[in-house]
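Feature request, filed as a ticket because there's no other form

It would be nice if the structure record came with a short human-readable summary line next to the C-alpha coordinates. Right now we just get the raw output. Example of a typical job, pasted below so the devs can see what we mean:
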Amino acid sequence: MDRSVCWLLLLLILVACRETRSESGPGGAPDVAARAAGAELEGNEPGVEFEAPRLIPAIRAQIIEIEDPEGATEGNLAAFKRGVGTLVIAMRADLNRVGATDTGEFHASGDSVLRKLGDGAGDVVGPVERLIETYEEGMRKAAD
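Raw output as currently delivered:
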Protein backbone atom coordinates (compact mmCIF):
# COMPACT_ATOMS: atom_id res chain seq x y z
CA MET A 1 0.00 0.00 0.00
CA ASP A 2 1.27 3.47 -0.82
CA ARG A 3 2.70 5.41 2.13
CA SER A 4 0.47 8.46 1.60
CA VAL A 5 -2.62 6.22 1.61
CA CYS A 6 -1.49 4.70 4.94
CA TRP A 7 -1.08 8.16 6.47
CA LEU A 8 -4.48 9.21 5.15
CA LEU A 9 -6.13 6.11 6.63
CA LEU A 10 -4.39 6.67 9.95
CA LEU A 11 -5.54 10.28 10.00
CA LEU A 12 -9.12 9.28 9.21
CA ILE A 13 -9.10 6.67 11.97
CA LEU A 14 -7.77 9.19 14.48
CA VAL A 15 -10.39 11.75 13.50
CA ALA A 16 -13.18 9.17 13.70
CA CYS A 17 -12.02 7.89 17.08
CA ARG A 18 -11.38 11.26 18.62
CA GLU A 19 -13.34 11.79 21.78
CA THR A 20 -15.68 14.75 21.54
CA ARG A 21 -15.60 17.37 24.26
CA SER A 22 -18.41 17.06 26.75
CA GLU A 23 -20.66 19.98 27.51
CA SER A 24 -20.06 19.36 31.18
CA GLY A 25 -16.83 18.92 33.03
CA PRO A 26 -16.06 16.57 35.88
CA GLY A 27 -18.87 16.25 38.39
CA GLY A 28 -21.46 17.56 35.94
CA ALA A 29 -20.33 21.20 36.30
CA PRO A 30 -20.97 23.28 33.18
CA ASP A 31 -17.92 23.60 30.95
CA VAL A 32 -17.76 27.37 30.48
CA ALA A 33 -15.05 27.05 27.82
CA ALA A 34 -17.39 25.01 25.61
CA ARG A 35 -19.95 27.82 25.37
CA ALA A 36 -20.33 30.02 22.36
CA ALA A 37 -18.79 33.47 22.72
CA GLY A 38 -22.19 35.16 22.98
CA ALA A 39 -23.63 32.70 25.50
CA GLU A 40 -24.96 34.30 28.63
CA LEU A 41 -23.42 33.06 31.85
CA GLU A 42 -25.22 33.07 35.13
CA GLY A 43 -23.40 34.08 38.30
CA ASN A 44 -24.57 31.01 40.20
CA GLU A 45 -23.02 28.50 37.78
CA PRO A 46 -20.06 26.64 39.24
CA GLY A 47 -16.73 27.76 37.83
CA VAL A 48 -17.88 31.23 36.75
CA GLU A 49 -15.73 33.86 38.38
CA PHE A 50 -15.83 37.48 37.37
CA GLU A 51 -12.54 39.30 37.03
CA ALA A 52 -13.27 42.87 38.14
CA PRO A 53 -14.64 42.32 41.69
CA ARG A 54 -11.28 41.06 42.93
CA LEU A 55 -9.49 44.06 41.35
CA ILE A 56 -11.77 46.83 42.65
CA PRO A 57 -10.55 46.75 46.28
CA ALA A 58 -6.94 47.00 45.10
CA ILE A 59 -7.74 50.02 42.92
CA ARG A 60 -9.57 51.70 45.81
CA ALA A 61 -6.56 51.07 48.06
CA GLN A 62 -4.32 52.62 45.40
CA ILE A 63 -6.65 55.63 45.20
CA ILE A 64 -6.23 56.18 48.94
CA GLU A 65 -2.47 55.85 48.53
CA ILE A 66 -2.11 58.31 45.66
CA GLU A 67 -4.45 60.86 47.24
CA ASP A 68 -1.93 61.13 50.09
CA PRO A 69 0.73 63.65 48.96
CA GLU A 70 3.48 61.40 50.30
CA GLY A 71 2.03 58.34 48.59
CA ALA A 72 1.74 59.95 45.16
CA THR A 73 5.15 58.71 44.06
CA GLU A 74 5.97 58.02 40.44
CA GLY A 75 6.01 54.28 41.14
CA ASN A 76 2.59 54.35 42.84
CA LEU A 77 1.11 56.39 39.98
CA ALA A 78 2.53 53.97 37.40
CA ALA A 79 1.11 51.01 39.32
CA PHE A 80 -2.25 52.79 39.54
CA LYS A 81 -2.30 53.38 35.76
CA ARG A 82 -1.53 49.73 35.06
CA GLY A 83 -4.11 48.62 37.61
CA VAL A 84 -6.85 50.81 36.15
CA GLY A 85 -6.05 49.58 32.64
CA THR A 86 -6.37 45.99 33.82
CA LEU A 87 -9.58 46.82 35.69
CA VAL A 88 -11.22 48.43 32.65
CA ILE A 89 -10.43 45.39 30.51
CA ALA A 90 -11.75 43.05 33.24
CA MET A 91 -14.96 45.06 33.67
CA ARG A 92 -15.62 45.02 29.92
CA ALA A 93 -15.05 41.26 29.84
CA ASP A 94 -17.39 40.68 32.79
CA LEU A 95 -20.15 42.81 31.29
CA ASN A 96 -19.81 40.96 27.98
CA ARG A 97 -19.84 37.64 29.85
CA VAL A 98 -23.22 38.37 31.42
CA GLY A 99 -24.65 39.81 28.21
CA ALA A 100 -25.08 43.31 29.62
CA THR A 101 -25.81 45.72 26.81
CA ASP A 102 -23.76 48.88 26.86
CA THR A 103 -25.61 52.05 25.93
CA GLY A 104 -22.20 53.50 25.15
CA GLU A 105 -21.77 55.04 28.57
CA PHE A 106 -19.46 52.37 29.97
CA HIS A 107 -17.29 52.08 26.87
CA ALA A 108 -16.95 55.87 26.57
CA SER A 109 -16.19 56.25 30.29
CA GLY A 110 -13.56 53.51 30.15
CA ASP A 111 -11.90 55.08 27.12
CA SER A 112 -11.98 58.50 28.78
CA VAL A 113 -10.34 57.21 31.96
CA LEU A 114 -7.63 55.38 30.01
CA ARG A 115 -6.99 58.44 27.86
CA LYS A 116 -6.68 60.68 30.93
CA LEU A 117 -4.28 58.22 32.52
CA GLY A 118 -2.22 58.05 29.34
CA ASP A 119 -2.05 61.83 29.11
CA GLY A 120 -1.04 62.10 32.75
CA ALA A 121 -4.07 64.26 33.44
CA GLY A 122 -4.61 65.25 37.04
CA ASP A 123 -7.84 64.01 38.56
CA VAL A 124 -8.82 60.55 37.40
CA VAL A 125 -10.04 59.36 40.79
CA GLY A 126 -13.59 60.66 40.26
CA PRO A 127 -13.94 59.12 36.80
CA VAL A 128 -12.54 55.79 38.02
CA GLU A 129 -15.08 55.70 40.87
CA ARG A 130 -17.91 56.54 38.44
CA LEU A 131 -16.70 53.78 36.12
CA ILE A 132 -16.75 51.29 39.00
CA GLU A 133 -20.29 52.41 39.91
CA THR A 134 -21.42 52.01 36.28
CA TYR A 135 -19.91 48.52 36.18
CA GLU A 136 -21.57 47.49 39.47
CA GLU A 137 -24.92 48.83 38.27
CA GLY A 138 -24.60 46.93 34.99
CA MET A 139 -23.77 43.71 36.82
CA ARG A 140 -26.74 44.18 39.18
CA LYS A 141 -29.10 44.72 36.26
CA ALA A 142 -27.75 41.63 34.51
CA ALA A 143 -28.31 39.56 37.65
CA ASP A 144 -31.99 40.56 37.84
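Something like this underneath would help us a lot:
Residues 44 and 143 are 10 Å apart (CA to CA).
The chain has five helices and no strands.
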